[in-house]
Automatic annotation (TrEMBL):
Keywords from the UniProt entry: Signal
Taxonomic source organism: Shewanella inventionis
Keyword Signal: yes
Protein name: Uncharacterized protein
Signal peptide range in chain numbering: 1-18
Gene3D superfamilies: Jelly Rolls (2.60.120.10)
PROSITE patterns: PROKAR_LIPOPROTEIN (PS51257)
Amino acid sequence: MKYNVLLMAMLLSGSCVANELPSFLDANDINNAEFSCLEAEQTYSKNDQKYVDILWNETLQYLQSYAVALTNSENGPCLNSDEAMYDSTDGGKNMCIMDRRDMKLLVKNIYQVINNPDKAKKCFGARENVDWIYSPGGKLAQNSPVAKWLKRTTFDSFFDTKVTNKDVRKLGKEFTKHFTEMVTGNEVKMPSAFPTDISANTLPNLWAAAGWYPMYAEESKRNDKNYNNIRGGYAYAEIFGHWGLLRIDAINDEKVGAEVGMTVQSVNTLYPYHNHAISEIYYNMRVPACANEFKSFAIREDSPLIQTVKEDDKVRQVQFDAGQHNGHTMWLSSSADRDPLMYFHQNTIHAFDVDGSCEAKPEERAIVSVWARSNAHDKRNDYGTTLLCESAKNPGTPAHKDEVIQCDLTKMKW
């Protein structure tokens, strides 16, 4: 593969060097960039700083490899770009992901960080005082000196003390018990676009200590439309972004919308139909146990298959018949080896179905993804809110694959 020798040296050693830029980026915007942080620079004792440095070096490796993957054109027809599925209907629709302006900006932000690491590091911290992000615990944390130093509250404690639904708590404890097996081992594999492995197999401190959040586990009105097994079997961590370790407000006086991290979803679960105003991408990092184990659904808001029910100046309520006779053909398979990259435009209705029936040890398996949102700085469009769809027949209850579903789509402001 045609990767710069210095780039590879940086990835393998954690050292900081200037990196070759994709041709669509202007070096004048990258080199000597100036950073504005979301909070004051954190200071640590000499002893503590060594753990922060480990976390920082693994963060740089994660971001570097990710940027290279997004701009890698060796596996398809694109120029300086990987190819992504963006709509699963009509046999599936693909595009060159770098055709999107928001993706170019996300990659630009990453290169501004990795080419100016000393400046960017001023916006980086271990977030040790944040009480709503957690350690997965288990062997992953036990084998990480950074996680042991941080002493974050564990998933185990979270599900014991923060979760009132007994079924969700039980499922969450099972998720916690096997989290290490879910994110490590031979089943976890990087898509070929990545120059290096950035999974927990290679970056154990980042995956153990980034700070995870089981976003659906606690009680909320939104969860009336959710499934208990997702509430107890899903978590994400954010590395770069407003809620992550690297918290940058602006670079060269331009607001930063990049939000990058990872997600884990247990097998034998359906992440329900949902949407949000912010564009989102996933790279699948799992080798499936059978051909159609990981299936994804995506339909854009302007599809003729979507019908508007009612609308006001903020929201358009729509319906889609998920149970139509050919509905099953609208779910496409994905894995680390097959169509691993997905891009969801703003308001795209999407869902993930993970069938664990072919897994020998389903309790130890999950779909693992590199995840990002691209324009998270635009708070006019309800930054951070994921809206779950519902049953059109029984509003307020989860939307199933065999019925008409109903979703509220945000009316975007520009």
